[in-house]
Design brief:
apoplast (chains A, B, C), signal (chains A, B, C), 183 residues, mainly beta, AOC barrel-like, homotrimer, Dirigent protein (chains A, B, C)
Chain lengths: 183, 183, 183
């Protein structure tokens, strides 16, 4: 092997395997699509509710969503996660955390929650935070960490409102793309 | 080219482009300075308020900040973001999320929020969490993720209280340094 | 040095110092074990309390934890951090943030908090989020960022309930393993 050939080969090897500029490529190392189902307590559905209003602005109560696009409502949830969009499918885990309605003149929320997965396929947790402009078809939030099968993972989750029924039920489709995976 | 020269050159190339020890250098790959403006609802400013108290300890209400350094108050906000410190400048986005006053004997808050940027310069979101010891001049919180133009970014945000008026208004200067950028 | 030898050596050098597949190894670059102590306000312990209920479902108050496994209670805290399990040890910092009881049929919480460390050994903050299935002996949450001595760090924290007294006091042991350290 002559030197120039060796040099070119090695330069390619180094370039393709490291990130000299600190910038990294957008190619998912893992992908997961899941659904979760939120049934908000409204004073009448105690048996089925998976979420409850726990914070509200002055003058509002905690069984009826607040005026002005629910601005100021804080809800806590423990929602079933399913592999498809059927509320009655066997859950593969729970989505646990909170959402906060944070705008007066349109419907937006701030999300902080965790997927706690417990199935034959997946064991571990995935942690999310981000802004949810609900009226937009697909919204991106951050996957900021994970444990178990998702040890140290980071990525982006695209969420879509797959269905809703009045103020009581909504179903979200969550398309999780991990861009940072660890062994 | 002789072998020793080639070896030295290649060693340098490898050393400078990867992180053999798992430790990484502190050099920002992107920097952004923005301001946001919070007007807290106090029972009289419904038209202008961009934030509201939605949680409070027993005995406190939600139009007056709580005693003992506001301990226990939870506020939800949707605040305009501007490029300079002028409240009347055209917003380039919204800061959305919550702050929680969490100490009884000094003024500190816990922050969870998102910058939703929507301007000719920037499209995307930046997600923050961290402790805010308000009486300290400059406080560092974590940038834990981003979307759009800030896809997968991480960094540190240094926040300073740029101005405030009583209990109703404050303006924060946010100096965001990204240390992890993705293409 | 002959070419084949050089090639093999350089291939090893590149392979061991970069992550061609985007997958990274699980070896902690730093480890820290700390304890924190939470005294929840119950209407009688104002002088000692370090936490307070600030959100509750309809029908519940904020001095007594809610029925159904505290579902819907939001607590804000500023708890002392110690190096050992003694509540009276000199604190090395404060744990500040919130916990949210989010399940109706077992005891689980969602956590968002920060360790603010201020001692001769450590100066800086560590930011955590995650689900806490309290009845499980050891639970893993995400370390999503840090500042100061913990600049840009990420990792996993294993939390254990080290002690508790009724509804008023609990002590958590937090075993933090950082897998991403920065200089």
């Amino acid at each position: 092997m002559k030197s120039p050939t060796l040099f070119i080969f090695l330069f390619f090897l180094v370039s393709s395997s490291a990130h000299p500029t600190g910038k990294k490529q957008r190619s998912p190392c893992k992908n997961l699509v899941l659904f979760f189902h939120d049934v908000l307590y409204n004073g009448k559905n105690a048996a089925n509710a998976t979420a409850a209003i726990v914070g509200a602005p002055e003058g509002a109560n905690r069984t009826i969503l607040a005026d002005h696009f629910r601005f100021g409502n804080v809800a806590v949830f423990d929602d079933p996660i399913t592999l498809d969009n059927n509320f009655h499918s066997t859950p593969v885990g729970r989505a646990q955390g909170m959402y906060i309605y944070d705008t007066k003149n349109t419907l937006t929320a701030w999300l902080g929650f965790t997927f706690v997965l417990n199935s034959t396929q997946h064991q571990g947790t995935i942690n999310f935070i981000g802004a949810d402009p609900i009226v937009v078809k697909s919204r991106d939030i951050s996957v900021v960490g994970g444990t178990g099968d998702f040890f140290m993972h980071r990525g982006i989750a695209s969420i879509m409102t797959d269905s809703y029924e009045g103020d009581v039920y909504f179903r979200l489709r969550v398309d999780i793309k991990f861009y940072e995976c660890w062994q």
